Amino acid sequence: MSGSGTRAAYGMVNGVLPADTTEDVRTRGAGVSAQVAVLPVGSFEQHGPFLPLATDTLVACAVAREIAAAYPVHLLPPLTVSCSHEHAAWPGTVSISAVTLHAVVSDIAASLRRSGVDALVVVNGHGGNYVLGNVVQEASARGERMALFPAAEDWEAARERAGVVTSLLTDMHAGEIETSILMHAHPEFVRPGHESADFTADDRRHLLTLGMSAYTESGVIGRPSLGSAEKGKELLASLAESFEPYVALLTSAPGRQ
């Protein structure tokens, strides 16, 4: 079922917060060999003058909502503030430290295990959350079941299926992909201006040292003018299909603890 279908509409508040009761979680868990939780992680950072500060959170939630419509996962509410330090030059951006984000995700995973949810998939909507890779690596080394989604390969498959013209390198921030997903999932939040906001900066080797303001005045790096709701729909559909091997891996018998 599509993320815009009845189940998704019933199961979400304003398209972001899960509306499950504890009985919903119990019933869903009774029908699977191992429970998998999905945690959207977004950010609160500038996305140019036409997309909201909450863009990454809305994207992560749209991906997670599509997943929950297709698989019997335990959908969690999003983390809405993360590691956006490279965007500090723009008003409205808020960050927490990588240490804090690491601790919060690890604590959530531990809490889930205590309540009988066997595995956690972190759906990351912000490229600057590098620490999430470390969280998953460390948890896996301890024998816990955790995954990070989507991988670059998943995004590339989605880009090709949706007919996204911009490469993943060029489509860095508030570009064709993010604009398309919001045009499909939350068109009410896309303001005028994306049609003429294209800006590219493929050589960003000093990004971590200088921040985004060294590469763009508007905050945009990509081609948002190429965005469309149809591309957004196909991007999300492709990502939902790409999620299947993650479920199989986390629920397979050899990985059970």
Major sheet description:
4 strands, parallel
From the spread of the alpha carbons, the general shape counts as globular
| Main sheet strand line-up | 4-3-5-6
Number of helices in the DSSP assignment:
10
Query: Quick one: how many beta strands?
Result: 6
Task: List strands and helices in order, with pairings.
Layout: H1 6-11, E1 12-13, E2 17-18, H2 22-30, E3 36-41, H3 55-70, E4 74-75, H4 98-114, E5 119-124, H5 131-141, E6 145-149, H6 152-162, H7 176-185, H8 207-210, H9 229-242, H10 244-251
Parallel strand pairs: 3-4, 3-5, 5-6
Antiparallel strand pairs: 1-2
Helix pairs in contact: 3-7, 3-9, 4-5, 6-9, 7-9
How would you describe what is shown here?
With 257 residues, this protein is of the alpha/beta class. It is 41% helix and 9% strand. Strands 4-3-5-6 form a 4-stranded parallel β-sheet, with helices on both faces. Strands 1-2 form a two-stranded antiparallel sheet. A hairpin with a 3-residue loop joins strand 1 (12-13) and strand 2 (17-18). Helix 7 packs across helix 9 (229-242). The radius of gyration is 18 Å and the shape is globular. The two termini are 31 Å apart.
In short:
The chain is of the alpha/beta class. 41% of the residues lie in helices and 9% in strands. The protein has a 4-stranded parallel sheet with strand order 4-3-5-6, sandwiched between helices. The chain has a two-stranded antiparallel ribbon with strand order 1-2.
Q: What are the defining features of this structure?
A:
single chain; about 260 residues; alpha/beta; four-stranded parallel sheet; two-stranded antiparallel ribbon; 6 strands; about 40% helix; globular; disordered N terminus
